[in-house]
Write a sequence for this structure.
């Protein structure tokens, strides 16, 4: 389905197949989360939740799914860093909750980099498809921060506490194939087949037995919502408190200085952005 050019970082597309697509649409920035994008994601997720069709597909434009937080937006705020990071995390967390609580199946499709907050956003799906070349990296501790967007809640439940600790503490990189073996995603598919497979999966779910699918999802999610809500609040407090501290401020500044500022149109821009985190 062709889409008109948009300057909005998040788009909603209602497909004739009966499913609704929520699309991150700021590929030049690797779909990084600054406050504008996080708030657009929150508002988009809530709009989709009000009319989700038979299924929802979450995916992203460009070569990266979501590279996490926009460190350049974080690092230039001095004493306001913590408050800004808390605002970004809170908006992104409202989106995570809205997506987690959808009554219909949610499919996420991950291409390229999923880093920092992009990890939690990817894992909120009921079915998670990843391109074989996808790269999953937490990366928070490298800049003196802790996970947000539910990453520290989803990971132990998906891969177990030992592997979750490995991913969070060492910033190990997983490919799409690795992520399937670890149980992080539902399945890994050829890069060129990801969009078609994601579309087909969402359309098939939308055409399925709607009442049964909603009831089955309700059983799978039973009791999880309140726990996730409390955990997201704790994540937001933790990352904001650390962002105000000297260690994180120094690490973020060093991280950005080592890479330099990508120029507009520079083919390396998205690769550099893929190492951002929220």
């Amino acid at each position: 389905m062709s889409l008109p050019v948009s300057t909005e970082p998040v788009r909603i597309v209602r497909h004739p197949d009966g499913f609704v697509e929520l699309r991150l649409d700021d590929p030049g920035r690797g779909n990084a989360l600054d406050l504008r994008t996080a708030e657009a994601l929150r508002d988009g997720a809530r709009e989709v939740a009000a009319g989700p069709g038979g299924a929802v597909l979450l995916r992203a434009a460009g070569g990266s799914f979501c590279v996490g937080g926009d460190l350049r937006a974080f690092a230039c705020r001095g004493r306001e860093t913590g408050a800004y990071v808390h605002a970004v995390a809170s908006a992104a967390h409202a989106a995570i909750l809205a997506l987690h609580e959808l009554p219909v199946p949610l499919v996420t499709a991950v291409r390229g980099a999923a880093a920092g907050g992009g990890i939690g956003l990817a894992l909120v799906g009921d079915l998670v498809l990843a391109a074989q070349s996808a790269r999953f990296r937490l990366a928070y501790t490298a800049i003196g921060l802790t996970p947000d967007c539910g990453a520290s809640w989803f990971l132990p439940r998906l891969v177990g506490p030992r592997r979750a600790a490995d991913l969070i503490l060492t910033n190990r990189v997983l490919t799409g194939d690795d992520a399937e073996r670890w149980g992080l995603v539902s399945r890994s598919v050829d890069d060129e087949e990801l969009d078609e497979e994601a579309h087909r999966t969402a359309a098939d779910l939308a055409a399925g037995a709607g009442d049964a699918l909603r009831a089955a999802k309700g059983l799978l999610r039973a009791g999880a919502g309140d726990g996730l809500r409390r955990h997201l609040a704790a994540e937001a407090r933790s990352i904001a408190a650390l962002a105000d501290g000297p260690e994180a401020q120094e690490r973020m500044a060093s991280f950005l200085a080592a890479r330099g500022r990508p120029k507009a149109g520079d083919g390396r821009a998205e690769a550099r952005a893929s190492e951002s985190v929220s």
